[in-house]
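Standup, Tuesday
Yesterday: got the pipeline producing C-alpha cells again.
Today: sanity-check two examples.
Blockers: none.

Example 1:
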Amino acid sequence: MLEKIWPFGRLRLRKAVEEALEKAFEPGETIEPLSELVEEENRYLLRVEVPGMDKEHLQVRLEGPYLVVEGERREEKRKKHLAEIVYGRIYRQYLLPPDAKAEGVKARLKNGVLEVEIPREKTEAKTVQIPLE
C-alpha cells in the first residue's frame, strides 16, 4: 500500500528518515537548552536547564543587548550499554528586554538549572503626541 502512495518505496523512505535523524543528532552539533524568562516587578529571571553541567564548563556573558549562555557537556569515555544523553556544545542567545540593566546581573547554578537575575530599570511610559501632516 505504501508503495502506491509513496513512489520511492519503503526502503528509501526508511533510509531517508534514518539519515535525517542521524544528521539531527550528529556529534558536534550545538544544543539549545530549554529555558524560560519570567518578568517580575524589579527584575527578570531567566532559568536555563543544563543538567549534568559544572560551572567550570559553563559561561554566561552580556554581548550588547544579548545575554549569552555557552558551554560544553562533555562525554566521559566508558563502555556504554545505553546512550541517550546528548553531549556537545551548548549555546543560546537571548535578546534582553529594553528595560533590562546590564549592571547587577547575577547568575547561579543549582541542581542542573542556571538562574540569571537581570535587574530592571524603572521607566515610565511616556505619551508623545505626533502631529499629522
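Example 2:
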Amino acid sequence: MAVDIKNLNHNQLNDLISKAQARQNELRKEKVSKLREKIHALIKAEGYSFEDIFGGARGAKPRRSGGTVAPKYRNPANPEQVWSGRGKRPRWFNDALKAGKKEKDLAI
C-alpha cells in the first residue's frame, strides 16, 4: 500500500503518523505475546514451571520498609528546614558550607 504523502495536508499527515504509530505498537504487542507463549511452551516442554526458572511470582521483589529517616541537619536561618543527610544536599546546606560553616555546625 503506497500512500502519496506529498498530497496530504498537515492534519492528515499527523493523523497518518499517529495511526502508523498505533499500528506499530499493536504489532510489537502481538510479537511479545507470541514470544511469551513460545517461552512458556519451551519451559513446559522441558518439564519446568515459570517459577522454577525465574523464581517466585513475576515482578515480586522484596521491598524495604521505606520509612522516614530522622533529620540530621537543621538550617540555622530557618529551623523548619531540615535534612536527613540522604539524597541530594539542599541548597541551604550548600550555601551554609560555602559561608564557612562545617557539617557539625549544622547537625541537630
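Quick observation on example 2: Residues 73-106 form one domain. The first strand starts at residue 73 and ends at 74.
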